[in-house]
Amino acid sequence: MEEIGLARFINTPTGLKPGEAANLASLHLELLRGKGIAQIDDALDSLDGYLRLLGGRTPPPAVEQELQRLTYAIIEVAETFGYQSLGKSAYSLFELLDNIGVSGQWDRDAVIVHMESLRLLRHPEAVPPEMQTHLLDRLRLVVARHRTGSSK
19, 22, 82, 93 - which has most CB atoms within 10 Å? Predict the structure, then answer.
């Protein structure tokens, strides 16, 4: 029986040994790293722009969704290129935005603290690992405050 679709390609030899394929995949990731970092920077700039436009006002639902979409984009790229602390910080912001959306209580200061951490962790080589851990622990406390409905 003749194989069709994806099965045909899966079972077709490429001529690459597993180690060679892994090296080629690593090379491709390195070639894409610059574009990925540019995507992170663009998402950070967009988030900053929305926060400037909002001032202290609560974002309408469409803007809230866009803030979450931009944050998720940072998570994806950071995780792909090994920026673990940046990804965790972005996830923390994503969770914060979700909690704020549920509670309806906008906390610009909490969002700004997360944004500052993202900017800092965008350059992980400049932040000692123990400081990254401490920063992420503090962000978790900020998110937890919103999760429990505690006041400022």
Answer: 93
